[in-house]
Amino acid sequence: MSTNVDHGQWSSRLAFILAATGSAVGLGNVWKFPYIMGENGGGAFVIVYLVCIFAIGIPVMMAEVLIGRRGRQSPGNSVRALALEAKASTKWSLVGWVGLIAGFLILSFYAVIAGWAVSYIFESAAGNFVGASPEKIQTIFNDLQNDSSTLILWTTIVLAVTGLIVGKGLKNGLEKAVTYAMPTMFLLLLIIAGYAAINGDFAQTIRFMFYPDFSKLTFSGVLIALGHAFFTLSLASGAMMIYGAYLPQKTSIAQSVVAIAIADTVIALIAGMAIYPIVFGNGLEATAGPGLVFVSLPIAFGQMWGGIVFGTIFFVMLGFAAFTSAIAMVESAVAWLVERLSFTRGKAALTAVVSLWFVSMLTVFSFTGAEWAKLDFVFVGKHVSNYFELIDHLTADVLLPLGGLATAIFVAWVMQKEAVAQELNVSEKVFSVWYVTLRWFTPIAVLFVFLNLIGLVSFSS
Ligand code: TRP
Question: How would DSSP label each residue in 217-249?
Fold first, then answer.
C-alpha cells in the first residue's frame, strides 16, 4: 500500500523554517493565545505555557519532523514505513492517520474563523468601526455569525485560496507563499505593536503579561496551556510530519525545531503586546474571551487616531497568519491523495478543499444556530451543544494530546534507538536529554492531563 512517491524537497533550510513557522503562527497566536491568557490571569499562565512549549512541545515536534524525514511520505505511510523498519505492527500507522484527520478537522472550523478575519479587513477599510458604539460593533460580529450566506462566502474564499496555493506544489505554491507572507506578516505585526506601544497602555500590558500572580492560575489553566502548546506548534495534526518529509537530509532537525518554537512563542508574545495596550488604553476588559480580537479591538480602533489604517493592517496580518496555517493543515491529505490515488497535485488539492468545504458547513451552521447542527451530549468529559464545539473539543482536547502521546511512544519506545539517533544526528548529551524527556516526561504529563479531562483523576482548582 505504501507507494514511494517522490514529493520533492524544500529548497533550503530557511524555506522549511518559514513554512513550519507559518504553520505554527496563526489564529492560535493572535486570536486565541491573547484571550486565553486574559481569561487565565496573565503572567502565571504565560510561565506555565512557556514550560509546556519547551519541555513538551519541542521534544514532540522533533519526533514528528524525524518521522516525516525518515519516512518521506504522508503521515500514515511514513509511520507505517518506520514501523516496518522497526519490525513493529503496521497498526502504528494510526499515529500518522490521527494527525492527518486532526489537521483536516481543524481546518474545517479554522477556515470559517479565518473567513471572519478576511471579512474584517473590508469592514475595517470601509470605516465601519469608526466612532461606532460597542453595541454596534457587537452587532456587526453577531450579524456575521448569524448570516449563513456571508459565512459561506468567506469560508469558500479561504478554502479556494488555500487550494490554489497547495495545488501549485511545494516550491511554486507553499514555498513561494510563505516566503512572501511570513516576512510581511511579521512586519505588519511590528507596526501594530509599535502603534499600540505609543498610543495604548503599554505599562499595564507589561504588568499583566509578565507579573505572575499564581493565585489566578487554576488547574484548568494548566490544562489549557498544555493543549494550546500542542495547538500553537501545529503538533499531532500531520503538519510537522509532512513538512519534515520534505526536509533535506543534511538539515539539523533539532536546531530548526528550536528556531520554529522560539519564533512561534515570540510572535505570540508580540501579539499580546500589540493587542493588550490597545484594549487597556481604551478601558476595555482583558477577559473578553473569543471576542477580544473581533469585538474589543475594533471598538478600540474605532476610537483611535489612525484606526482605519491600523485596524485594516491588523486584519491583513491576521489573514496572512491564517493562510500559512491553512495550507499546512491540508498538505498531509493532499500528499496522501497523490500517493494513494496517483492524483496530480492540482486534482488532489481540489479534492481536499471541496471535501473540506462540506465539512466546514457543520461549523457554519453551528454558528448560525441551525437546528440540525445542534447537539446535546457529553463527549469525553465535556458537554457539546453543536458540531463546532464537538470538532473543536475532539481535536484540541482529545486528538492532539493523544496524538502527541502516541507519537512520543512510537519514537521513544517502538522505533529502534539507533535509527532514531541516526536520523536526529545530535550530540550524545542532547540526544539523551531529549530521549528521556520523550520517553518518560511527555507521556506521563500528557496522560495526566488526559485522565483529568475524562474525569479518572481529578484535581480541584
Ligand atoms: N498552529 C496553528 C495556530 O496557531 C493551528 C494549527 C493546529 C495548525 N494544527 C495545525 C496549523 C496543523 C497548521 C497545521 O493557529
Answer: --HHHHHHHHHHHHHHTTTTSSHHHHHHHTS-T
pTM equals 0.94
Is 26's C-beta closer than 6 angstroms to any atom of ligand 1? yes
Residue nearest to ligand 1 atom 6, measured at CA: 234
Indicate whether residue 363 lines ligand 1 (CB < 6 A). Answer: no
Q: CA nearest 204: which of 276, 284, 295?
A: 276
The span from the first CA to the last CA of the chain, in angstroms, equals: 49
Among 130, 116, 112, 180, which residue's Cα sits nearest to residue 311? 130
Please, are residues 86 and 416 in contact by the beta-carbon 8 Å criterion? yes
Does residue 55 have a pLDDT over 70?
A: yes
Name the 3-class secondary structure at 377. Answer: strand
d(CA 395, CA 77): 21
Cα torsion through 222, 225, 230, 234, rounded to 10: 170
Please state the separation of Cα 384 from the chain's center in Å: 21
CB 115 within 8 A of CB 145: no
> Is the CB of residue 327 below 6 angstroms from any atom belonging to ligand 1?
no
Measured CA to CA, the distance from residue 327 to residue 103 in angstroms comes to 10
DSSP string, 394-441: IIIIIIHHHHHHHHHHIIIIIS-HHHHHHHH---HHHHHHHHHIIIII
Distance between CA 386 and CA 156 in Å, rounded? 21
Beta-bridge partners for 378: 383
Give the model confidence (pLDDT) of 92-133 as tens digits. 999 999 999 999 999 999 999 999 999 999 999 999 999 999
* pLDDT tens for each residue of 165-221: 999 999 999 999 999 999 999 999 999 999 999 999 999 999 999 999 899 888 888
Read off the amino acid at residue 200.
G
Name all domains of the chain by residue range, CATH numbers in brackets: 13-453 (1.20.1740.10)
Phi, psi dihedral angles at 386 (to 5 degrees): -160, 175
Cell of 352: 481536499
Give distance in angstroms: CA of 201 to centre of ligand 1. Answer: 30
The pLDDT score that the predictor gives to residue 449 is: 79
